[in-house]
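Why does residue order matter? Because the sequence determines the fold. Keep that principle in mind as you read this record.
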Amino acid sequence: MDTAEFKEALIGLMEAKQHWAWPLFTSGQVAADRLHVHFEQEYATYVRDFAILLGRAYIQCPIPAIRAELAENIYEEETGKLSLGKAHAELFLGYPAGLGMDVERFKDIRMLHEAARYRAYVDEATLECGWETAMVVATIFLEGNEYERAVLDADAPKRPEPDLSEHPLVKHYGLDPSSLALTRAHRMVEAGHRHVAWSMVDAIDSSVYPQVLSSMEEILSRWHTYRDAVARACGLVRPVAS
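Structure:
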């Protein structure tokens, strides 16, 4: 397997990072008093600690150029000083706060079993499987989405970025657009992060490809199970067509 084939395999896995319940979330079909489940579980599984997860790849990586790129990403995640001046985890809490939720509950989140199992593998992949797996899991799987092909192919469909007034939380739940600071920050820096993530893949030795792909397959499987559990906890039922 050469680098191009490896990247294609990674893209294929990322294109499978889609969940049947997400259209129900984005169309306002989750009861407002259940939305906290989604926010709490996302915060606990990776948002709160994302800079730490990046840091694990940074610490293990022997390549200075890769460490420099990871360091810039960590700096933005922890400080927001390349965008809006606040840590991204703090900006994330603007969503539930803007919806009138008690953000104190985010200090002691009770994780769903499937969420804890998913997070356990995030920890394993970023601590025990080498810097290459840690980097790919953090910068591509956790930070990326099903539109990763567009990073490498200008003709591929890009992730939609509607006006903030059309954001699902604004349209369906009355969130004030001023509470979408994290969305604005992402739009300021994420395009660069996506290109950097895929450029760093070029530094991975082909001998490690099987380990990285195996970890990506495992984390994708656990992510789907985790998101199934969140959907159930939010009162959603999988459509028959799914």
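The chain has a mean pLDDT of 96.
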